Amino acid sequence: MKILVVYNPAAGGGREALLKRLVQALERRGADVEVYRTKAPGDATRHLQARAHQGDVVVAVGGDGTTNEVLNGLDDGVPLGIFGTGTANVLARELNLPRHPEQAAEVMVNGASLTVWPGDLAGRRFMMWTGVGYDAWVVQGTDLGVKRRFGKLAYVLAMIRQLARYGTTDYRLRIDGRDYQARSAIIANGRHYGGRFVLTRQADLTQPTLQVLLFNAPGRLALLKCLMALPFGAMERVDGIVSLPAREIEIEASEQDEPLQADGDPAGILPARVTVAERAVLVRVARDSA
Length: 290
Ligand SMILES: Nc1ncnc2c1ncn2[C@@H]1O[C@H](COP(=O)(O)OP(=O)(O)OP(=O)(O)O)[C@@H](O)[C@H]1O
Fold this sequence. Notes:
Blueprint lengths: L1 E6 L8 H13 L3 E6 L5 H8 L6 E6 L1 H8 L8 E5 L5 H5 L6 H10 L1 E5 L2 E3 L2 E3 L2 E4 L1 H7 L3 H7 L2 H10 L8 E5 L2 E5 L1 E5 L3 E2 L3 E2 L11 E6 L4 H10 L11 E6 L1 E6 L5 E4 L2 E5 L2 E5 L4 E5 L5
Parallel strand pairs: 1-2, 1-3, 3-4
Antiparallel strand pairs: 5-20, 6-7, 6-19, 8-11, 8-17, 9-10, 9-16, 11-14, 12-13, 14-15, 16-19, 17-18
Bound molecules: adenosine-5'-triphosphate.
């Protein structure tokens, strides 16, 4: 079995020792392993697209951003393995993937392939979410130096800083042909968000649908209340939040240059169209979770 490991040395501040243990564990299981170290943002996608052969499994070693870049370069039908060495690794949690290199290698070599439907944001696929407004500002405003040194604390600081901006932009969303307004929106493909928290119980990676959360909380205090409900998995029940399933979403903003985020990284500016991707991908998971 040929396994191509795509390793992001910048994710989670670098995890060389874990990478080495994963490669050894894969080789012990008879895999022929090649490691590609990414050199810059976007490199994982470019490298994969330029290769004639990607092997039997491509493994993303990094965080959600790395997995997103690998997903966008992956050939049809090649299963994706995920080993979370990033800051939050939300997708790895969603799929209940092992954190230990030995168990992770077992999943990649002898696990099952789960069919997952990614989302599509203007021709680029995403696994977990895309978002506008507060959600995108937090991603845009996260200090990469602080993230490298202090991990998730960088997100918390950005969340506090961006609160003041909430309500300054209105978003118009056309969701499966119906018009909505919001002050912020998250389009979820998976259930988790910001680590171990459950954002929505309605999302399901294995179904070709998305779940849209519209935030119409009237002010910053109301937004704060929504955020405080997140660790309890109760955000959808807070006043001012509308949660609805969708397959096609068009988004516009009242202001210019409004950013989007996708899988926790900046992903261009509005307007944008979001759909379910045309093709599913296979993701390696433990036999009992498939
Ligand atoms: N060699 C590199 N140097 C600097 N940045 C890189 C390199 N290779 C990839 N990147 C970028 O690193 C960014 C962060 O990666 P990733 O999201 O995987 O890790 P993380 O932010 O630590 O984790 P998480 O998203 O799970 O919180 C990605 O946007 C990716 O484009």
